[in-house]
Amino acid sequence: MNINEHGASIRFENCQKTFADGTLALHSLDLSVHAGETLVLLGPSGCGKTTMLRLIAGLEFPDKGGRILFKDEDVTRQPIEKRNVGMVFQSYALFPNMTVAENVGYGLKVQKLKADVIKHQVAEMLDMMELGALAPRKIDQLSGGQRQRVALARAIITSPRVLLLDEPLSALDAILRDRLRAYINTLLRQLGITTIYVTHDQEEAMALGDRIVVMDHGRVSQIGTPREIYFSPQNDFVADFIGQINTFEGPVSNRRMTLPGGILHCAHLGDGHGKLYYRPKDIEITARAGSEFGGVVHQTQFIGDRNRIWLKGVNHDLVIVDSDGRSDFFIGQEVGLRLRPEQMIRLDRQGGAAA
Amino acid sequence: MKRTLSYYLQLSFTLLICAFMLVPVLMSMTAGLTNNYFQGLSSGLTLRWVEEVMALYSDTLWLTLKLALATLLVNLIAGVPAAYFLACSTSRWARVFEELILLPVAIPGLAIALALIIVYGGVQDLRTSWLFILIGHVLYTLPFMVRAVLAVLHSIDLKLLEEGAASLGAGFLRRFFDVIIPNCKGGIISGALMTLTLSVAEFNLTWMLHTPMTKTLPVGLADSYASMRLEISSAYTLIFLVLLLPLMIGTQWVGANTQKKQLSPSKPRHASLGKNDEH
Ligand SMILES: Nc1ncnc2c1ncn2[C@@H]1O[C@H](COP(=O)(O)OP(=O)(O)OP(=O)(O)O)[C@@H](O)[C@H]1O
Ligand SMILES: [Mg+2]
């Protein structure tokens, strides 16, 4: 198989997208994607992920002044069929009039390769995707997971410069999704194609992305590695969107924040009004007696590997704590809380968006 | 299960209606094959009348076939792309046009013919050519073709399929022939059968447009009813039905089949987690 060792790098210059009806779906954006990198676009519904993907694909075109470059080539005005990209659509867009093998081989047929060359490459690809036995089937005789793999096979067989995936796993059930995610992960590392992967599932984003672009209302909120995004979010939106987070907000004096549940130490905050962020699993539950910070159990939920506990009387909102699954709490129980400064999530407001 | 009285009443009523419609047709068909209709079947069966019709009217048969095929060709070349562009367009005018295109169906054939004669009647070469009737037939049948294809195009996600093909490098023509045409095959076939049926059976419009040199089968049929003996007209009708019936049955069959397809869900089969199935 003649898959590129490395795909092309992608550069967005001043790209903005306004739709015909005036919707500003993407605010002006500069962004670089390295060759061979997997970049995940992550954000809530309607934030412009698909729009950005379609701009890269050549299914939409940026407003005047915007430029898109693959390596050093300006592709801004090229339609999709000229860009040599592979795309997996959210609903797969497989051809119902063709068999699995014909679907997978279609890109090669368009390139006018010889029939026996196509046959050979398709067979190899189907084997790699473990679809060999399904080759003669029609698309409507496949399960969701099989369709997903056919769509992936069809997109990568032409060795595209860039692979674009739009929420390819969202239509599948949880078990299948996990399995295919692992499969795609291995495959992308093997192929080394530059990949843009759209999802609104933060777990998927963490698992697959070399870097993650968190988007909000058509703007980039933060770009960074999964670790950077998780441990040092740059703003409330990112902190909140990536996993659960507790926000403690109150008056600070003398490096102490006063809250309904007691006193919190915050060495890094000056006097005035401050905010502290902790993830649920970083908060430790202790005995009420002798602790200067705590609350009352409002609700608990056993999730198997952990107990999720909602506490009242600690903060203005309920505080969420994840504790060991074996621990047991009852509603109304008074508990103390220990928050370690080193586990605090700091909003890294200084670091500008790394491009 | 015990059948009630009302079941038998309904059954006999249905059979009665069928007989009412079919008996005259069967009578006239047998009339074309009997030696002497007034003496009845006892006079013996013969193909004499059929042969005589072929001698007298075979050119109307060939013209009818030629017209039907030419109409079909024009409809395929013009109608399928027209339906595609209508389906793609998001403009309000496209929707208006979709409604307009059905209008000729509501206008009587006679009115279309009259309009054609007023506009083109002066052009002698055209007026006396079979192409004049072809124009009429295309005007009359094209809306059916476009509608049939449009219905299918509206039921599939055309844009998505095209984007899928384009992402694999296919330019417009490739997409059109590889993806669009095969996926609206059902609509094209039913539109084609409808075109053939309508063109073969068309009388009103054709009667207005025809000249002595350009007579189609239905027009010739009317002539023979007026001037020939009953057995010849009947044999002529028989030939007409033999031509028409397969087309009508085909139309019905395709219609029923596409309906069945639309009714059966085409959702992904439930994701099976079998060992050699999923990874
Ligand atoms: N063709 C269009 N015309 C007008 N507005 C559009 C069009 N396509 C998308 N939009 C708007 O642009 C915004 C971004 O849409 P987009 O499809 O990129 O969101 P998304 O992040 O992919 O969301 P989802 O997770 O739901 O798929 C939305 O407000 C949407 O309504
Ligand atoms: Mg989307």
Automatic annotation (TrEMBL), chain A:
Q: Which residues form the ABC transporter domain?
A: 10-242
TM annotation in the entry: none
UniProt superkingdom: Bacteria
Keyword hit for Nucleotide-binding: yes
Could you list this entry's UniProt keywords, alphabetically sorted: ATP-binding, Nucleotide-binding, Transport
Gene3D superfamilies under this entry?
2.40.50.100, P-loop containing nucleotide triphosphate hydrolases
Q: Can you name one GO molecular function term for this protein?
A: ATP hydrolysis activity
The answer to whether the entry has keyword Electron transport is: no
Task: Tell me the SMART domains matching this sequence.
Answer: AAA
One GO cellular component assignment for this chain's record is: ATP-binding cassette (ABC) transporter complex
Official protein name in the record: Putative spermidine/putrescine transport system ATP-binding protein
Automatic annotation (TrEMBL), chain B:
- Looking at the record, the residues that make up the ABC transmembrane type-1 domain are 61-249
What Pfam families does its record include?
BPD_transp_1
Q: Where is this region: Disordered?
A: 260-279
Transmembrane region(s): 7-27, 67-88, 100-123, 129-153, 235-255
Q: Does the keyword Plastid apply?
A: no
Q: What is the membrane topology here?
A: Multi-pass membrane protein
Q: What is its main location?
A: membrane
- Which keywords label this protein? Cell inner membrane, Cell membrane, Membrane, Transmembrane, Transmembrane helix, Transport
Q: Which domain of life is it from?
A: Bacteria
The cellular component terms of Gene Ontology attached to this UniProt record, alphabetical and capped at eight, are: plasma membrane
Q: Which InterPro entries match?
A: MetI-like, MetI-like_sf
Cellular localization per UniProt: Cell inner membrane; Cell membrane
Single Gene Ontology BP annotation = transmembrane transport
Q: Does the keyword Transmembrane apply?
A: yes
Q: Which family does it belong to?
A: Belongs to the binding-protein-dependent transport system permease family.
Name under which the protein is recorded:
Putative spermidine/putrescine transport system permease protein
Originating species: Neptunomonas antarctica
